[in-house]
Description:
CATH class of the largest domain: Alpha Beta
Mean pLDDT: 91
CATH architecture of the largest domain: Alpha-Beta Complex
Number of helices: 5
CATH superfamily of the largest domain: Nucleoside Triphosphate Pyrophosphohydrolase
Order of helices and strands: HHHEEEEHEEEHE
CATH topology of the largest domain: Nucleoside Triphosphate Pyrophosphohydrolase
Distance between the termini: 38 Å
Amino acid sequence: xxxxxxxxxxxxxxxxxxxxxxxxxxxxxxxxxxxxxxxxxxxxxxxxxxxxxxxxxxxxxxxxxxxxxxxxxxxxxxxxxxxxxxxxxxxxxxxxxxxxxxxxxxxxxxxxxxxxxxxxxxxxxxxxxxxxxxxxxxxxxxxxxxxxxxxxxxxxxxxxxxxxxxxxxxxxxxxxxxxxxxxxxxxxxxxxxxxxxxxxxxxxxxxx
Length: 208
């Protein structure tokens, strides 16, 4: 049973990577490779479940899927000067908390730790959940997706800043002197709110 669960998890991860790859594919070569990976994923699921590949493929057709919110994971990291860690996004040149879409095969805390490492080079440990927000209940600009946002407090354990292709810059900032924020990703009020919950664990978790 453990082996079957492991195979299924790998298959789910391969499918997620393949679908994302197909969405951003820049050439026919990319499309062919990611399509092949999808077929490998379906074959693995077939081996574990006993379902034929056609049935498995039909389960993932858009009209057959129940649409659920996307999950945005954001890491809340402070240094010993009480400054918050922000990264400057290449997508819009503005600043945000480290993070991004949740990955299949990773828990929310694992995503937070991974995103900080990938975007900044810093090594952190996830400590606790600070807030879960429904994006539509806050003053973000409109986007095509319905999104839940998870804010996870993380503690620095090591590492140094490194260069990343999709991050223009990174740094720690005092809360009273924040740089221009990427409002699609984070709002000033949200930063103040998660800091409030960070400072007072008795508040528990903010929940929309």
